[in-house]
Amino acid sequence: MDISKYTDLAVMYASEYGIKIIAAIIIFIVGKWVANKLTFFIKSMMTKAHIDKTLVEFSESIIYFSFMLMVVIASLNQLGVNTTSFVAVFGAATLAIGLALQGSFSNIGAAVLIILFRPFKVGDVIETGGVTGEVTDIDLFSTIITPVDKRTVIIPNSSIIGGNITNFSNRTQRRVDHTFGIGYDDDLKLAKETLIEILAADDRILKEPEPFVAVSELADSSVNFVTRAWVKSDDYWGVHFDLLEKVKLTFDERGISMPYPQMDVHTDKQN
């Protein structure tokens, strides 16, 4: 076997394609580094210009993807690949992938609608898709929500746009609503005065609009009061839970009962 023949052949291919491969790798590595730096620079400029954070995060994804596409094309061109043909093949492949991933592209369209109409932004507390929490990120395909227990919930953008959205952060005030029941034998006036007193004693509850207490229903086993108190949005959950505890403890101290559903069963004795 003539080993020198194969050695010469290997050297020829190495000299012909080795430099191109090395150059393509260098272009890709340097190009990726430049893409990261340029994307970070543009993001910093947008942030300094006080552009909405949601738009900044969304634009960052688009800009980085565009830069990386140019880097890949430049690397392939260095290898001698006909980029014109590549773009045509890429377009055809994109069409085929698009047909297969219609749901994913609907998420991208939904992301554009979220950016344009801004029903919420990063940092807002919203309720959507059965989840309530703070919006921590909006990308091309999904929105990430962090509930109060610090879970990470990822919801497809199309599901958000196709459903109801409750935004708790676009108002500075929220109303805390509760319903409390007392027994029919209890002192109605005392119960009402107690509820008014509890609401007035909490400094987090705003004086304007004035807190509201009234009998809302004569139910089967209780007389129900409704309470409505306006608070700052940041104080909502604290007041919500504290009122439940305070009312129960105060009612117990003053001998006001809070009945619960019950059933009386009567039996007939037969001889």
Q: Gyration radius, to the nearest Å?
A: 33 Å
Please, how many helices?
7
User: What is the first-to-last residue Cα distance?
Assistant: 115 Å
> In this structure, how is the largest beta sheet organized?
5 strands, antiparallel
Share of β-strand residues:
15-25%
CATH class of the largest domain: Mainly Alpha
Shape descriptor reads elongated
Number of strands: 8
Poorly predicted ranges: none
Helical content band: 40-55%
Main sheet: which strands, in order across? 4-3-2-1-5
Element-by-element helix/strand order: HHHHEEEEHEEHEEH
What is the number of domains? 3
CATH fold field value of the largest domain: Helix Hairpins
Q: Provide mean pLDDT, rounded.
A: 81
**CATH architectural name of the largest domain:** Orthogonal Bundle
Structural class: alpha+beta
